[in-house]
Amino acid sequence: MSSVFKALSDPTRRRVLEMLRDGPKSAGELAGAFDVSKPTMSAHFAVLRDAGLVASEKDGKSVFYHLQMSVLEDALFGFAQTFGWERREDISTTGRPVLKEGKA
Amino acid sequence: MSSVFKALSDPTRRRVLEMLRDGPKSAGELAGAFDVSKPTMSAHFAVLRDAGLVASEKDGKSVFYHLQMSVLEDALFGFAQTFGWERREDISTTGRPVLKEGKA
DNA sequence: TCGACAATTAGCTAATTGTCTATTTATGAG
DNA sequence: CTCATAAATAGACAATTAGCTAATTGTCGA
Fold it and tell me: Is the distance between the Cβ of B70 and the closest atom of strand C smaller than 7 Å?
């Protein structure tokens, strides 16, 4: 949990996650979108991977990263539940969980 | 946003927030629940205050902290919305927003 | 095998973090 | 005014972080 929030505390890393919303992208493709060196981006990827927020697969020369939605979901909603919000699955229209007012 | 996630990345600070769920508590009362020095706790309070997650009021010799629910809510749900979750207000039974499957 | 390319690792610096003890500030009681 | 209590500030220190350049590893095409 701490490692997830730590990972989310950097704007570059949050933007990487957003870039992965619609599918996997290579390390180079991701790095190209930011104004920092490749090794620096590689370190950011490592933080995200260690937090479990992304997973990587090697394909030829490239490494592709993809979002681990469920980890993001569990951290965000798991914490929110502590404060009385409630995850709802029942009325979902898009397939992702819903967080609703809890009885907590 | 970064400062909120940074604040949430420490377990001590998350527990402080949880302790404030049911109402304000003094700095001493909060500090007493943890196994670190008062000044260390004071630093944690400052991080939470700078992130906007808590506010403080002085009452006599004591300082009382209370949760700023809306800031927590906006950070958590604002970020979640980026990933297609949707905040719902309509079916809430406890008065807190609901996060549901988005069309995003 | 050689060269180019993609990505990570190594090694470094500067800045930030979490922790401590000691000190200071502010309030209230006698 | 003086003392005790609550909390924050100051100053020190070890550990971590984000960033860089340079070097290394792995994979392909010629």
Answer: no
Residue ranges making up the domain that contains A94: 71-101
Query: Other CB atoms closer than 10 Å to residue A32's CB: what's the count?
Result: 11
Which of B1, B2, B5, B81 to mutate to test binding with chain A, by most A CBs within 10 Å of its CB? B5
CATH of the domain at B49: 1.10.10.10
pLDDT at B20: 98
Structural domains counted in chain A = 2
Q: Specify whether A26 is located in the same domain as A62.
A: yes
Q: Please provide the DSSP assignment of chain A as one string.
A: -HHHHHHHTSHHHHHHHHHTTTS-EEHHHHHHTSSS-HHHHHHHHHHHHHTTSEEEEEETTEEEEEE-HHHHHHHHHHHHHHTTEEEE-TT-SSSS-EEEE---
| B38: CB within 7 A of chain D nucleic strand | yes
**B52 and B28 together in one domain:** yes
B62 and B90 belong to one structural domain: no
Give residue-wise pLDDT tens across range B23-49.
Answer: 999 999 999 999 999 999 999 999 999
Residue pairs spanning A and B at CB distance below 8 A: 121
Interface check B70 vs A, CB under 8 A: no
